[in-house]
Amino acid sequence: MEPSDLSVALELGPTLVAADGGAAHCLSAGHMPEVVIGDLDSLPKNMRESIPPEQLIFVSEQDSTDFDKALRHISAPLVLAVGFTGARVDHELACYNALVRHADRRCVIIGESDVVCLLPPKLSLPLAAGTRVSLFPMRAVQGRSEGLKWPIDGIGFAPDGMVGTSNEATGAVQLEVEAPAMLLILPKAHLGLLVSQLLATSEGWLAP
Predict the structure, then answer these.
(1) DSSP structure string for 178-207
(2) For 64, which of 8, 13, 68, 149 could close a Cys bridge (C-beta 3.0–4.6 Å)?
């Protein structure tokens, strides 16, 4: 986890929640998490003892990742996830899987060079021409677009078929998808814009 990413995230959302061993990185960066969620098997004992017991939420089951545990226990308009990319690929893929399975929880994952979220039913993005806009389906899904160099209307996307990576904005972009199944990937510099537009979007996916 880059300390600068955590600082930027805290400027946009000041409530710090750590996923298990992520608390160690927070403490090392000088930030005390308000809550730590997980089975606590990745958090060193000395650090765990430095956190007030009432700020620890123990989730014992082993069928989900720390990210999944944290995401489903957080109630917030939007979650910014820091420190979940760039290391183990299997852990990163599991995070994208969790975005789809918990589609009602708006979340942006902050990576080394990109930011990733699950597309809501409709999203407006006032982007400059030439901005990279990538779409990756997590299951079969269709949608429509305005303002993309290569429109997505009428295309059947699927993880084992057509994907929409390395598309490009021609100006302001409008995106619509029929189901909670498409990841949106933008350059990291557009984090603030993405957060503001997601929060401004009235339509969202309902809990299953």
Answers:
(1) SSS-EEEEEEGGGHHHHHHHHHH----PPP
(2) 68
Residue 94, in any domain of the structure: yes
Reference 109, options 202, 17, 184, 29; nearest CA is 184
Q: How far apart are CA 18 and CA 8, in angstroms?
A: 16
Residues 5 and 94 grouped into a single domain: yes
CA separation for the pair 174, 143 (Å, rounded): 11
Q: What is the phi/psi pair of residue 85, to 5°?
A: -125, 165
* CB neighbourhood size of 137 (10 A): 25
From first CA to last CA, the distance across the chain in angstroms is 31
Domain boundary among 112, 137, 157: 112
The CB density around residue 147, as the number of other CB atoms within 10 Å, is 20
pLDDT tens-digit profile, the chain (208 residues): 677 899 999 999 999 999 999 999 999 999 999 999 988 888 888 888 899 999 999 998 778 899 999 999 999 999 999 999 988 999 999 999 999 999 999 999 999 999 999 999 999 999 999 999 999 999 999 999 999 999 999 999 999 999 999 999 999 999 999 999 999 999 999 999 999 999 999 889 998 7
In angstroms, the CA 131 to CA 95 distance is 25
